[in-house]
Amino acid sequence: MIQWFLTLVAPSLLLVSGEFSITQESLDSVATEAVSAFNRVSEKRLEKTPAFRIVMRDELYDIVYKELLPQITAQVGSVEGEGSAKSMSLALSEALLAKYVPDSDTIVVCAKNFESLARGLDTPGLRTRNALVAVLVHECVHALDSHRFKWAEKIEEISSDTERLLAFNAVLEGHAQFVARRICSESGWTDGFEAFTSCIGKIVGEDAMGEGMKILSRVVTAGMASAYIDGETFMAAIHEKGGDKLVVRAFTTPPVDVETIAHPEWFIAPDSRPSYVFDLSRAAERVSAGFDKSVWTAQAMSVGRPQLQAALALLSPEEITQILDSMRQNKTVVLVPTAAPQSKMVAGAFFEFATALDARQYFASSEKLVRLKDERMKSGMIRILDSEYSEVRRNGWQGLYFVKTASVGAETVKVSSVVAVRGKVGAEVIFSNEMISKEKVIELLDACFAEVLAVD
Questions:
Q1: CB 134 within 8 A of CB 200
Q2: Which of 44, 149, 399, 421 has the fewest Cβ atoms within 10 angstroms?
Q3: In the chain, which stretches have pLDDT less than 70?
Q4: Which fold has domain 280-455?
């Protein structure tokens, strides 16, 4: 689907082997069984049966690239979009088991990826007929939803808005999981459904990674997994409350942010969504305001709980739960140079907590986390070589300023950052390979807190 942020890469293997070999003949047989069960169990029938076809990775790459390029270009421009679309399409072509293609009403299956993921993730259940049929049922839901709602047009409509795109992807994947789980349960294919579902969000070769690469990969894959896992929970909740009527609304007037996916009751009854004391988007806008729009590309969004959990993974489970349970909202903005997006990055992240005490506990845990990384990221592709710290107390807020020298592959990168807290609001700003003085970083935090806490 539209998980363009996925960087999971499966190893290349040459042969399909194991308990069940996927050929066009076996695919045709399994597809017939999947469609029959779908129409028997699902509330809505497939009035038109999609085609089913085996593809190699190079063709899968072309299919994904054609879909991703306009989406990414709409967000970051043509220069960065083309390169990002190519790298993401390559990763997905080595990870996707199957894909529904709306333009041709076809479900394509990459047999090679079933075997490579079965080995790379130690999931032999992917080699079974039941795994294939479960994947096909999942894709049949996408086909039905395409026939009913023309969701590809909705993606095109919202493609410039990252947060809306992520929320809509959770609707797409969550609905496919919700319906497929029921069909597989009633058809005796639960083992196959659980086999492919268990692979979502896992990382091939994680044991061989350094701590820095693990953290980065976990954050990325947590976002991908959230669309399936949290999306399914969301769709199950709205279906239970309002049946197909609410499902239709989720596709035609979808949630506008990932926070709503985590709180289906807000979608069911929009007036139940709490009003926040602070407008964190004002702080994100203040960060962006310091950078020329003709040079820098900015993306602002809320970050979901699974990704936050992955980012905090070096802390204890108790600390992570305390931070996330007390967090009321968050907003992040990321800026990169449009012409050379891999060269630099500026980011600002802002969090509202239930109480000032919760915010101070977040700050204490953040300080602990940045120091833990010094110890844990001494080896691997991403290594911290040196760190300097100093406390900051200014204009009603306290913070920790630090500069780290990191090795990323063959490159050496300087990162300066401040984690800070004022009242119920926590904040972090990061400058990676973008030279800026300590005084300028502190002035930026002054301005951000002034924007957010104007009503404090």
A1: no
A2: 44
A3: 1-19, 76-81, 202-223, 454-456
A4: Protein Transport Mog1p; Chain A (3.40.1000)
